[in-house]
């Protein structure tokens, strides 16, 4: 029972439009699979501005907010839910620092995020998104997915994996 509670933590991970267009869905999924996390939901979706304004509502007062929403609505996003022990915090570590100038090699952003010459865009196009806390993960998962889109499954042979 206790082990179950530990392993059911979920996080919302999205490949942003720049990541989808650059063919990075596969490598990003691989990094989560390689760490033993379990994919429980996935879909390609072009989100509306209203949807993205809700997703980023905590950032609504920031100067980059309108540009962020426009960019995120500019093409399909690959929305996913990953499950496993401490997946929110570990997921953020797998993604790397928000600003591509600071993301370490070995992280998704540190390996794939291109440092753009236009200053005002160099933070925004950072390939992927990951929930920053268990509470925000719950909110984001509820915004992007219906309950029935979340798969409940277990690997058939390995009971030590999630
Ligand atoms: P994310 O939610 O996408 O994983 O990113 P984060 O928590 O690491 O960063 P946050 O501060 O919540 O920002 C969300 C997204 O907004 C864009 N951004 N642009 N100065 C800028 O132009 C700027 N700062 C942030 C990025 O796309 C960032 O991921």
From TrEMBL:
Residues binding ATP, per UniProt: 16, 64, 92, 98, 109, 126
Keyword tags: ATP-binding, Kinase, Nucleotide-binding, Transferase
Catalytic reaction(s) noted: a 2'-deoxyribonucleoside 5'-diphosphate + ATP = a 2'-deoxyribonucleoside 5'-triphosphate + ADP
One of the record's GO molecular function terms: ATP binding
Family: Belongs to the NDK family.
Protein name as it appears in the record: Nucleoside diphosphate kinase
Residue window of the full protein shown: 34 to 195 of 198
Active site: 129
The protein's required cofactors: Mg(2+)
Taxonomic path: Eukaryota, Fungi, Dikarya, Ascomycota, Pezizomycotina
Catalytic activity, EC: 2.7.4.6
Domain called Nucleoside diphosphate kinase-like: residue spans: 8-152
Entry keyword Cell membrane: no
One GO BP: UTP biosynthetic process
Top enzyme category: transferase
